[in-house]
């Protein structure tokens, strides 16, 4: 530790390190071993990690590293944390205090819930989120962590509302939670914690009819929104400044903002593709680190990319793209070139893939061509319901397969998800194991990873099941 401190003193920031963080979600049938993920984070000089829960194995895997960690209480824990300060004390003791100090984990943040004010939750967590935050912050203070560890509530951009004329400068809090947001911002300001918000330009594009493609990216020169003396060429800046406006009108114009999630998925629907994801992410990283900021907040923008890895066990209620938000594939291989330093200091390094990945044996499960195609669809449906077929949805990387190809894709997913168990490549005799890679063109048939215990202890839970694209804007391009 002493050695590290000296190093940190000599170099205020690690050379080439990015100040952007990443979200590390673990809802995957084939999770990479935690130790390999941590090596990957370090190889990529990522210094900040946001978690969605407080999984002990994940947290412990970062012990002795410099990674700044955000641990989280899930929405389901909010009611009990709100109801009883003692519950928050127990939470902080078990999920924060036990890991820190000595050669421990550098926990810097606690997320209390995840987008609890999302309007599609119909108020389910509305009354408990803020009291839970108060109790957690008090518990952090009781444990002596108040100056080192801050608690906040990651919010979806739908805490904002943009009434006519739909301009950033006219943005308010959503009326049904305006008084909660006033209390929240007052509280965050008093504890020195940031406002955390998630933005999804991808969802704006996919969910809004006639949304101009260029407005989702950062390379447009069109003056899409003219707001007094400010001009907005991208939806990110407009949304960010909508938040700045709401904070300002609540009395906290300088409250720090951290973006909790922002990213672009790569499969499952047409606009979720590698080319768009690479453009968006590289433009985003450059924009955030360049210091240009937004019209209302010049300067470097802080935040966490969504996400580190694909998570194939997530619900696809938000859309088939939901399992494909990783900047890396499920196995830590690189999807596309990205310089996490934003090229701000010249041409920076590219992503470094995970090393020593423990793959299962190199074999796949495909349709046995001699068996005829009877009962194929029902077996395909069964495999898809227990696996992940989102790449074969319209617009996905495997969407041009034949019915037989679809069945092979589904059977292979099931086979890999079940850790290639004997008997899991049968499907009433329709399937067979092969050592010939069946991948074609853009469609990759994957090989699973050796099982780890992590997933079996912490199976898929409900995270944000419902997402929201963003606020409505007055786009000059759109016909009224
Ligand atoms: C610590 O966090 C985990 C995972 O989020 C949760 O299940 C557990 O109940 C928490 N501990 C306490 C004492 O609340
Ligand atoms: C869009 O904004 C302009 C001002 O820039 C305003 O005149 C117009 O009424 C707004 N449109 C709508 C639909 O509110
Ligand atoms: C901006 O990026 C998008 C996404 O890659 C691309 O389709 C578009 O052509 C680019 N526009 C300009 C002006 O470079
Ligand atoms: C393959 O599966 C996808 C997703 O279920 C479906 O949209 C597509 O129509 C299927 N293709 C054929 C040829 O059955």
Automatic annotation (TrEMBL):
Q: Which Pfam families match?
A: Glyco_hydro_17, X8
- TM region positions: none
The region annotated as signal peptide is 1-17
Boundaries of each X8 domain copy? 363-445
Q: Which InterPro entries match?
A: GH (IPR017853), Glyco_hydro_17 (IPR000490), Glyco_hydro_17_plant (IPR044965), X8 (IPR012946)
Q: Which PANTHER family match?
A: GLUCAN ENDO-1,3-BETA-GLUCOSIDASE BG1-RELATED-RELATED
Q: Which family does it belong to?
A: Belongs to the glycosyl hydrolase 17 family.
- The protein depicted here goes by the name X8 domain-containing protein
Which organism was this protein described from? Sphagnum troendelagicum
């Amino acid at each position: 530790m002493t050695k590290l401190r000296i190093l940190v003193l000599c170099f205020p920031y690690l050379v080439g390190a990015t100040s952007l963080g990443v979200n590390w979600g673990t809802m995957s049938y084939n999770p990479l071993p935690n130790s390999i993920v941590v090596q990957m984070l370090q190889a990529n000089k990522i210094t900040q990690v946001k978690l969605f829960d407080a999984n002990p194995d994940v947290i412990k895997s970062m012990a002795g590293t410099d990674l700044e960690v955000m641990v989280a209480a899930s929405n389901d824990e909010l009611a009990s944390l709100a109801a009883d300060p003692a519950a928050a004390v127990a939470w902080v003791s078990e999920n924060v205090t036990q890991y820190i100090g000595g050669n421990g984990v550098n926990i810097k943040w606690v997320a209390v819930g995840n987008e609890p004010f999302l309007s599609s939750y119909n108020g389910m967590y509305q009354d408990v989120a803020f009291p839970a935050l108060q109790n957690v912050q008090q518990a952090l203070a009781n444990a002596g962590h108040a100056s080192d560890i801050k608690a906040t509530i990651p919010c979806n951009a739908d805490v904002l509302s943009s009434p006519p004329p739909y301009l950033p400068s006219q943005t308010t809090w959503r009326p049904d939670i305006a008084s909660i947001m006033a209390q929240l911002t007052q509280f965050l300001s008093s504890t020195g914690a940031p406002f955390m918000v998630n933005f999804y330009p991808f969802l704006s594009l996919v969910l809004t009819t006639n949304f101009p493609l260029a407005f989702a990216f950062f390379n447009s020169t069109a003056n899409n929104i003219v707001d007094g003396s400010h001009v907005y060429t991208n939806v990110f800046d407009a949304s960010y400044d909508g938040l700045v406006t709401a904070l300002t009108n609540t009395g906290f114009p300088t409250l720090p903002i951290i973006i909790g999630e922002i990213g672009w998925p790569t499969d499952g629907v047409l606009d979720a593709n590698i080319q768009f994801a690479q453009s968006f992410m590289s433009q985003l990283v450059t924009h955030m680190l360049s210091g240009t900021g937004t019209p209302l907040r010049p300067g470097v923008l802080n935040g966490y990319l969504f996400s580190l890895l694909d998570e194939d066990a997530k619900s696809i209620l938000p859309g088939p793209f939901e399992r494909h938000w990783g900047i890396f594939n499920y196995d830590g291989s690189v999807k596309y070139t990205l310089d996490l330093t934003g090229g701000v200091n010249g041409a920076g390094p590219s992503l470094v893939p995970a090393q020593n990945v423990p793959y299962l044996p190199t074999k796949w499960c495909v349709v046995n061509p001699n068996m005829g195609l009877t009962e194929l669809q029902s077996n395909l449906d069964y495999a898809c319901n227990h696996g992940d077929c989102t790449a074969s949805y319209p617009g996905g990387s495997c969407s041009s397969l034949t019915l037989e190809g679809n069945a092979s894709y589904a059977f292979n997913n099931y086979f890999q998800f079940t850790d290639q168990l004997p008997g899991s490549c049968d499907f009433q005799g329709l399937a067979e194991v092969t050592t010939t890679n069946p991948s074609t063109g853009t469609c990759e048939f994957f090989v699973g990873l050796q099982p780890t215990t992590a997933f079996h202890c912490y199976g898929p839970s409900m995270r944000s099941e419902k997402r929201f694209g963003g606020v409505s804007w007055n786009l000059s391009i759109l016909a009224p």
